[in-house]
Amino acid sequence: MTDPSTTPRMPRIGLLGTGPWAAATQAPALAAHPDAEFAGVWGRRPEAAAVLAAAHGTTAYADADDLFAACDAVAIALPPDVQAPLAVRAAAAGCHLLLDKPLATTVAGAREVVEATRKAGVSSVVFCTLRFATGTTEWIAEQAVVDGWFTAHARWLGALFSPGADSVYARSPWRGEKGALWDVGPHALSVLLPVLGDVTSVNAAPGPGDTVHLVLRHTSQASSTVTLSLSAPAGAAGATVELRGTAGVAELPPWGGGLESFAAAIDALLHAVRTGEPHPCDAGFALRLTEILAAAETQLSSPSGV
Predict the structure, then answer these.
(1) Do 225 and 240 touch, CB atoms closer than 8 A?
(2) CA dist., res. 231 & res. 209, Å (int)
(3) Does the first or last residue of the chain, that is N or C, have fewer Cβ atoms within 10 Å of its Cβ?
(4) 252 near 141, Cβ under 8 Å?
(5) Which CATH superfamily is domain 136-254 in?
(6) Per-residue model confidence as pLDDT tens digits over 86-118
(7) Quick check: 234 and 164 in contact, CB under 8 A?
(8) CA atoms within 13 A on the CB side of 53
């Protein structure tokens, strides 16, 4: 008979957040994961935390610090500028971090998270979906080792704010304030940077609604253009990334669903914790995304409009 005292305990992962994204993706993925224990839920609305916890057979916590004390890691599904200070507190409590994008909408807020993870010696993974989704994960890695990329174009067009749209995410205050640049911009950048290299210059221009156009230069000397919107007509919605270079043309393939992608992000965090090896899509990478997006936002808000 196996001695229970010698059986390795599964890592305990808690969840901060009770909104639609937490309920549809993070909570069910944590509850179903074979190598982790879903240790509890905290939310800004205690009644919603109780409902979500009960749905997955775990505990609702009234105090976030009590959840941190009960966990080895936490996943966060909260608005970025609510996420960042809670991530700092969780890291200080010794919790590894499975974060959402964007990490924060200020460089200072994102930097505080990175500094907290380094000070505490905890691992972090940021859930940029395409870095973990079936199909796109492998595709990004394959393109990153190909030489000679000349240019790329990414389009991420959503109809969240279009007339007649009824998505629950359209009611998100931070998305309404920050728009496509901050909501879907991280997705596009999370593909372009591993393939073309870091961004060395940013030019931004507004389009209709919350549409933003970016022109980027990369360390590889390649250039890229990015079009982002949450207010596109429904018939125009869609996401693509196209690379062109000496190897020809490569297009981002379709990707798997949110549950499978988030399960892969949990795997990535557990691997980073076991090995001590930083994941390439960690808080440090997310800080760099925040720096690029903040530079674009500054240009868009300047009197010249560029």
Answers:
(1) no
(2) 6
(3) N
(4) no
(5) Dihydrodipicolinate Reductase; domain 2 (3.30.360.10)
(6) 999 999 999 999 999 999 999 999 999 999 999
(7) yes
(8) 22
At a CB cut-off of 8 Å and minimum separation 6, what does 272 contact? 96, 123, 124, 125, 278, 279, 282
State the residue for tokens 């728009």.
179
Give the pLDDT confidence of 189-227 residue by residue, as tens digits: 999 999 999 999 999 999 999 999 999 999 999 999 999
Which residue's entry shows tokens 């395409």? 130
- DSSP letters, the chain, are ---GGGSPPPPEEEEE--SHHIIIIIHHHHHH-TT-EEEEEE-SSHHHHHHHHHHTT--EESSHHHHHHT-SEEEE-S-HHHHHHHHHHHHHTT-EEEEESSS-SSHHHHHHHHHHHHHHT--EEEE-GGGTSTTHHHHHHHHHT---EEEEEEEEE--TTSTT---GGGG-HHHHHHHHHHHTHHHHHHHHHHHH--EEEEEEEE-STT-EEEEEEETTS-EEEEEEESSS-GGG-EEEEEEEETTEEEEPPP---HHHHHHHHHHHHHHHHHH-PPPTTSHHHHHHHHHHHHHHHHHHTSTT--
Domain boundaries in the chain?
4-130+260-289, 136-254
Q: What angle do CA 212, 260, 14 make, to 5 degrees?
A: 90
Question: Does the domain formed by 4-130+260-289 have CATH 3.40.50.720?
Answer: yes
Closest CA to 80 of 41, 113, 123: 113
Residue labelled with tokens 């911009």:
185
